[in-house]
Amino acid sequence: MNQPAPIQKQAIESVADIAGVNPLRDALVDAGLLIPTGVQGLFGRSGEFEHVVEALDALITRLGADQQAEVLRFPPAMSRPDFERSEYLKGFPQLAGTVHSFCGGEHEQQRVLQCLERGEDWTEYQKPTYVVFAPAACYPVYPVMARRGALPEEGRIVDAFSYCFRHEPSLDPTRMQLFRMREYIRFGTPEQIQAFRSEWIERGTRMIEMLELPNSIDLANDPFFGRGGKIVARSQREQNLKFELLIPIESDDRLTACLSFNYHMDHFGLLWGIKASDESVAHTGCVGFGLERLTLGLFRHHGFDIAKWPKTVCDVLWGHA
Ligand code: AMP
Ligand code: ZN
Fold it and tell me: How many whole angstroms from 256 Cα to the centroid of ligand 2?
């Protein structure tokens, strides 16, 4: 008889991977700040954790108050056609998350229930929907801007915020599969994007200094897939397209990227047909704030009890309430 494989073998992350030790993750879970789900990088958050996330979000709004940014909010997903056009699968197929749903009839449902009962693979009747997880908060924004026609002379700045999905299961609590990203996205000329990025490297550093967290800025690259991806990553570095603000969180000698400052040149402008005011291809850039990573950085450096954080830090976060 043709025996289907047990369900554990069908899953991408084996059950064995879920067990494992990470001192910071275990301490955060023991303190109740993160609630484990049994899947790596998928956590619930406590009220205290959310209190900090919300304060950081509000701080970023205050820091960007002069930007006249247009606020756009999307659910943590985008349309499959937009996702396909974004070429994310060219650069990062390993990180993408697509939403699948049951598409059978009653007969197929019986099969699914039988498979579940026997511990067999039940996913045969799950088919891709038109919904794909957003890999970054800025991704759903580009097609919207493209549909608006040519940019005004001063360009545009958009304020975006979303849960984002990346399939990178890890024991490291700073590497989640679902996390929140706040972004300012700049559309305009190369000069406007460069100026925006320099300004935000400065503002981002000031923000982290005010939060009294150790930090450094470094050149970076995205994790492009495969052998071809190594070449793309090298070229990204050679052209100084990505910088990150790093904080030691998970260990003293391994730095974690908490903010990123990206210049895409005309990549998204060409892909989406976004036009500058003179009808040339628009350039784009974005600054991204990882809200979970920043929150974890604060807990790691100032302790798990917010009541004992330095008053100066609390004033920055909650002094405006
Ligand atoms: P990136 O688009 O990779 O530059 O990501 C922007 C920001 O999102 C990073 O600087 C991090 O703060 C945050 N981030 C990226 N990946 C993860 C992850 N797996 N878990 C938590 N935060 C992340
Ligand atoms: Zn972005």
Answer: 18
